[in-house]
């Protein structure tokens, strides 16, 4: 009688261990190689687009995700973070252009963990991502829009001593208004 009980316990733990190993292998593969979008990876991660950008996936892969599900542009990533945050942090101007072409708002609020927020242009300038700032302006980002702190892109450029950006904007302004 004890042998049967021990055998049942033994098989129970083997089953639990097997499931645990399979689960961990799947997560390792997901993290390292990123299981293809067609396999329904959205079941585990909040936003495949956010995940792909944050893990440095190539442009074609990200384009396939956006083409398959353009609504991911507007969906928050983990903890409600915007995909803009990852695009700017990882300095991906080609992805910024892609999501703007698919209808992303260049003035979307980027929320942080502490309920503060900013806008993509200001965040790009704070991180000195000029190529992304140029793409945002090309798609209609207004440098005079204020963030939660009441700062415009001009203020951020002044604070971060981005004289080239300011000179270019002033030259552009003068050309438009002459």
Our estimate of the beta-strand percent is under 5%
Widest sheet: strand order? Answer: 1-2
Q: What is the CATH H-level superfamily of the domain at 70-177?
A: Ankyrin repeat-containing domain
The 3D shape can be described as elongated
Determine the number of helices (DSSP H or I, runs of at least 4 residues). 9
Reading off the top of the CATH hierarchy, the class of the domain at 70-177 is best stated as Mainly Alpha
Work out the radius of gyration: 23 Å
CATH architectural category of the domain at 70-177: Alpha Horseshoe
Supply the helix-strand structural class: mainly alpha
Find the CATH topology of the domain at 70-177: Serine Threonine Protein Phosphatase 5, Tetratricopeptide repeat
Mean pLDDT: 80
Task: Tell me about the largest β-sheet.
Answer: 2 strands, antiparallel
Describe the structure.
By secondary structure, the chain is mostly helical. It has a domain at about 70-175: Alpha Horseshoe (Serine Threonine Protein Phosphatase 5, Tetratricopeptide repeat), CATH 1.25.40.20. It is about 60% helix and about 0% strand. The chain is built from nine helices and two strands, in the order H-H-H-H-H-E-E-H-H-H-H. The chain has helices spanning about 1-35, 50-55, 60-70, 85-90, 95-100, 120-125, 130-140, 155-160, 165-175, and strands at about 110, 115-120. It has a two-stranded antiparallel sheet with strand order 1-2. A hairpin with a 5-residue loop joins strand 1 and strand 2. The chain is elongated, with a radius of gyration of 23 Å.
